[in-house]
Amino acid sequence: MNQPISSHFNPFRVLLAYACCIAFSLVASAQAAEADLSGSARGLTLDVYSRLSPLEINRIHSWEVVVSDAEGPVTDAEIIITGGMPEHNHGMPTQPQITAELAPGRYLLEGVRFHMPGLWRMEARITRDGRPITLTIDFEL
Ligand SMILES: [Cu+2]
Fold first, then answer.
1. Are 137 and 121 in contact (CB under 8 A)?
2. What is the model's pTM?
3. Can you tell me the distance from the alpha carbon of 25 to that of 5, in angstroms, rounded to the nearest whole number?
4. SS3 106
5. Residue 96 Cα, ligand 1 centroid: separation in angstroms?
6. What kind of fold does domain 35-140 have according to CATH?
7. Which of 88, 101, 113, 119 could form a Cys-Cys staple with 60, CB 3.0–4.6 A?
8. C-alpha 10 to ligand 1 mean position (Å)
């Protein structure tokens, strides 16, 4: 059976593929644009992109933490992130650690787990060029 090539061309299928492509890129750009959590202090901004989104109680997961200032990504920063519940006066059940800089200014924080619903306060101590800046992010879980 020898079909001419032109019979394979289905304008509906092309249109559908095109529509899917647009829908996918819209979803992708929405995800890229919106951080799960954000905070800033003294010209430094920290955006959290959780690999578990929305956040859930008792599931260990990782965060991608993006640090930037007015000039762009902040690379080679030393970051210590701690957290706790100010209303209950306790910390996190784990000690999350920054284990990699995935891209300039984008750091991987592993071992994040929240074990109770309520108000959580994350504190990030970001040191670059020997100067520490502490940044606080509050959120309700
Ligand atoms: Cu608590």
1. yes
2. 0.76
3. 30
4. strand
5. 17
6. Immunoglobulin-like (2.60.40)
7. 113
8. 59
Phi, psi of 19 (to 5 degrees): -65, -40
> pLDDT per residue over 48-63, tens digit each?
999 999 999 999 999 9
Residue 28 has pLDDT above 50, yes or no: no
Ligand 1 centroid to residue 65 C-alpha, Å? 24
Phi, psi of 57 (to 5 degrees): -75, 140
Residues with a beta carbon under 5 angstroms from ion ligand 1: 85, 88, 116
Report the alpha-carbon distance of residue 8 to residue 125 in Å, rounded: 59
Mean pLDDT, the chain, as a whole number? 86
23 Cα–ligand 1 center, Å: 40
The per-residue pLDDT for range 81-125, each reduced to its tens digit, is 999 999 999 999 999 999 999 999 999 999 999 999 999 999 999
